[in-house]
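Data deposition worksheet. Section B asks for the primary sequence of the deposited chain exactly as it was used as input, without tags or linkers unless they were present during the calculation. Section C holds the resulting structure in token form. Section D is free text for depositor observations; keep each observation to a single sentence. Incomplete worksheets are returned to the depositor.
Section A, Depositor: J.P.
Section B:
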Amino acid sequence: MSGRLLRLACTAAATTAAATILASASATAPATAAPEPRERSDRSTASLLTDLQRLYRKTEQATETYNATAEKLKKQRTEVARLDAALARARVSLHDSRGAAGRLARQQYQNTTDISPYVRLLLARDPQHALDQGHVIGLLARERAEAVGRLTGTENRADELAHRARKALDARLALSERQKKDRDAVKKRLKKVEELLASLTAAQLKALAEFEKTDIAKAQRAFMASGALAKEDHKPSSEAHRAIRYARKQLGKPYKWGAEGPKSYDCSGLTSEAWAHAGTPIPRTSQEQWARLDRVPLPELRPGDLVIYFPDATHVAIYVGRGKVIQAPRPGEKIRVSPIASNPVLGAVRPDVRGKADR
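Section C:
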């Protein structure tokens, strides 16, 4: 959800709250109502936060699916362009081969080549002389055979390329259709988030933010106390330094699903761009980053490594040391430095596994 939508949701909630307060003031109800017990209020806030986080996670899952399809579509477009170019070259070659074969045919039937005189030598009174000249006839015959062979081979190549180009185009169209469906799925998930936020009062929104902050702080304390990380950060490589430097320059920019910069990013858009600018291209999605990059035990985590979250690897952040990460958190929020335990940690991967740590 964009920042504008979040502000609209907050404004709407605040307006609703104000109207409720005015209505209560004008009613004949007692001036002082008994406040809700703290425990009940906390449970309500916790339930709301659970619902909101569930919706955000489903949105991120849909976003990662969209990103994966978009990446496949990008590669498929490149493949279609490559095959189209190869087919164009094959057709030019086919045209040239047909022209050469046509000239040979015309020369043969018009008796303008040197083949016919040599053939006639076979009937000459001096057969030995004809035999001596046989290699010339063979050369000319091979030339004609090679021309026909080139023509046949080029025709087969052109047919094969045309078939592959058609299949590639069909695949691209199928991916385009799937991308539209994935996009609609993300929008549907975002709409549910927006509807939930719009239904909350200003007080509920404030309570949610405070409750989530407390929840994250508690999770961070437990994570750090567990000894999951080394007491001192390992030294990063020069490539990792560059990736972190790039990520820091994006702080404050908005999250936007499917975005890869430079004005906005989603979680894996930020990490993939950071490492691309460091000179090490990595997969686009968090799930592919988890699947294809080298995994690192958490005690060996060093700045620049990627921290993967949730059992299905649908969120990612870049580790910057001292138990902190830079992440593009979710719709409606901005890129920021966060505790590593802001979300349930699945594990970590290292893009530059061969990169040597700076001394």
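Section D:
Residues 1-13+39-203 form a domain with the Helix Hairpins fold (CATH 1.10.287).
The chain has two domains: 1-13+39-203, 227-350.
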